[in-house]
Structures are given as C-alpha cells and as structure tokens.
Specification:
Shape: elongated
Largest sheet: 4 strands, antiparallel
Low-confidence stretches: 233-245, 267-272
Distance between the termini: 74 Å
Helix content: 10-25%
Radius of gyration: 33 Å
Number of domains: 4
Number of helices: 11
Length: about 525
Amino acid sequence: MARIKYDPAETPLVNKHLGYTFQPNHNGQSMFPGSRSARKRYPNQNQQQQNLMKAVTQWRNFSPTIQDNWNTFAATYPQASLRNPAIFLTGYQLFCKRNHYCFLNHGITADFLEEPILESLPVPAFTVTIENTTNVLDITANYLKYFGVLPAAGDFVLCKIYPMAVYSGQFFASIELTLEVLAVYLDGLFLSFAFPDPTPYISYSVYLSKPTSQGKLYSGTKTRYMGCFSSKTFLELTDTPGAYTGEAGKQIAVKGDESGLEFIAGGGGGISCADLPTCPTIISIQNQIANIASTVVVTLNISVPPVNYGLLYNFYIVKYESIRPILKPGWHHMSVSDVALLVTAAGGAVIGGGVLKENGFDFWDIPNTAATNSLGFNARGSGSRGWGGAFTIINQEYRWWYNYEGATYGRSKYLKYNAATISQLNLNKGYGLSLRPVKDSTTLADGETGVYFGNNGKIYRTICISGLEILSDAFAETIFFNGDPIPEITNDADFFNDVNGALCAFNNDWANV
C-alpha cells in the first residue's frame, strides 16, 4: 500500500485504475494493489455491532409513547456526548447507549431497559487494586485480547470505571485511577474491589490501559473494556458449605446482616395420621375435588373464587390467540357465527339485551331495562377502558370482544342499563373490554351448566345456549396458557397504545375483578 499526496491543482484518482484501488484518506489517497479487501473486524467489534443493532431494532419497534418518554427524559436530564461536551444525547441515543452497555455487561440476551429512570449514586466507597483477593474481576482474557501481554508487577496502568445503575441503565461520572500492578498470578490477572459499603444495584464497567510507567500516564491514554463488576452480598455469593451438616429440627438460613449462615428452628405441624390414605381429612379433600363441578354450579352457584366484573383486555389478546393462547385447548374466543346464534337465542337484537343481563341493581344502574337473565348469561355492567385509556360507563354497559378484525378496529357487542337491545360497535383495538370464551364443541344440552378451569386456578361457571357452551362469568385470567403473565398496564396512554396484548382491572382497582 502506498500513500499519495496530490497537489491542489491535480485531480485525485478514484476507484480502480490500472490494477490499483484508490481510496481517500486524511492526507489525500491510499493506493492498494488489486481490490480493497473487506474491513477486518475483531470479535469485540462484532459484539458491539450486534449490541447496537439490537438496540436500534428495539427502538424502531417501540410505541410513540415510549419514544416520547425517552426524548422527554433526555431533554429534562441532559447528558453530554463524550466526543463533544457541547452536544447532548437525544432520547434515541441515550436508549441505545444504555442498552449497549446492558448487553455488554450482561450478554446479548439481557432484557431491554424500556423506561428511563433517574437514580442517585451513593458515594462510591470502594478501593481497587490489581491482585487476587475476595471480590475480584478476572480480566486475564480481555487484557490479553487487547494488549497481547500481561503487565508485570510494578507496572502502572490507567483504570477508568463507569458506574451504572443495574435496573435503569443510568450512567454516573467516571472514576479515573492510576493503579500499580501489585501481583500477577499463574492463573491470570485480577482486579480486586474492596467495598466497605456495598451497593448491589450498581455495576461498574472497567477499562484499563496497556502497561506503562507511572510518569507516562495522561488523560488521553487509550483504555479497553475489561468487564463488568457488581458488588455482591453474602447471600448472592455463597453456596451452603459442606460443613453445615444440619442440626436436629433446625434449618440453615442466612443471618440477618448476611455475614454468614446460621441454624434456625424449623417448622412443624401437619397431618398426624399414621396411614394417610385412610386419613379422614385427606378423604374429605379428595371428595371435594372429585365433586368440584357440582359444588360450583349447584351448591354455590358462583365461580370459585367469585368474579365481580372480571378483567378488561385489549383486542390484541383476541388477535394473537393462535400464537400466544390465553384459553385452554378446545376453547376459542366468540366468533361471528357464535354471536349470531347467541343473539337469535336471546330473541333478537331488539329485546335480547334484557334476556342476557343479570337482573337487579348490584352491577347495573337503575332502571336495568327488561333484565331477566333467563338464559343464565349473567352479563354485568363491567364498563370499558375507552379512548386514550380512560375508564368509562361502569354499571351502564357491558361490552365484549368477539373475533372480527377490521383494518383499524375490533368488533364488539354491547348491552345498556337503560335499553333491552343488543348493539354492535367497531372500536379501536386499544380499548379494554370483557371476554366470553366458547367451547369448540359440547355434550351439554341447552340450559345445562358446566365448568371451565382457568390458567389461574379459577373455576368458572359455563352455560349451554343454542348449542354453545359459553362462560357464564366475565373472564378474569392474568396468565397465558403457558404460564407467562399477561402484562397489566395501568397508565392510560400506554394501555391504549399497546399492540402486544394487555389487561387491566376497571379503574385499576382489583376489588372490581
């Protein structure tokens, strides 16, 4: 490779010419024989590129509300750029930086820091030495990767430490130290932290320079990433030692100040029957479990535990049922044909609302027009979460989603406290409405009752109407069929803008559920 400096009057060559490739540089041009090969990337550069790409992709998938939160946070608490202290990071740049370090410290599979948080850093009461003591960071592999050789005892290195809050990704002022290498071991190089006052929720990204003498250190010395250290408590670091063999009737526990382990008195009690299969208590419990269906439907005539208004769900719970089910196998969200059968069975749209509404005024405002509940549908005025995430019309309307999706809306049926009708609405998919699952097929005859066992352990009543076995209570499940929690979103705007599936209790008050 040759470097070429052109006079101002000469025109530089570009691209390929006579078997050479010409590329601009800060002096003029570089001339390469043949084609310019692809840029060589080191493993750490590939990792950093992946971290950044993942953060950028996630930002693009964020709702406008979350992006606005980051931009507002960046404007309220400005953070200067490292390259130019006069320029401050945007919300996008701040998100990418925080998550880049999150992935760097905890791996590419770490969770995103979605919401910006402002935290205060306790006084960093710790000291750092290069030796192998109790709380250490093994920096051997990274040091060799960047500098090729470990320092010798007596060498000096520049150490930069960047504290970061684990849960918010917030950065604090860097700490710069000049460290003498006190010891190098056969099994590697170690950075030791001494914490008189540990702060477990703060992590420390460590950067070191190559070996140099103390007199040659200056602020511009190049440093490289060595790893991330978090102060740990005794409970986080310690496995139960083999010496703790136990004492009769006692259990091993961590001391209150987490300075070590101790024995504590164990629990007691339980069934005293010598032969459990013949124990009257066990037999009674088994009988209750075996007859739970008749207990729920006949004896109590309520779901267990009782359901008041149920929960409200946005349309995306229905939309994504096939890929992230909330229902048990053999059940589905009410379809267009199911709705038509239900309306017909109730006597049509003009009078059917009264037939489906629970009578009385516990869950409906006066006059609760024409309510008879003759089909056992038990509709209650659970209200909805409407435009912008506002809660409305409790005790005045019952709205439930069924499986029909338009370009910008989902479809629902609704009943009113002052009318006998069954009406239809096309609503924004961010609204929160009730659900009434339907069984794929049933052996029940019209009017017969059954049970639905929910993911939460709830036991719901069901009723057969026009050949459809339908929940006769509003749905109140908080976990998907696979056991994952359904996100509960309490903020109005966040709920309305969610596109992944979410739930809430009316007015965020679980007493309503």
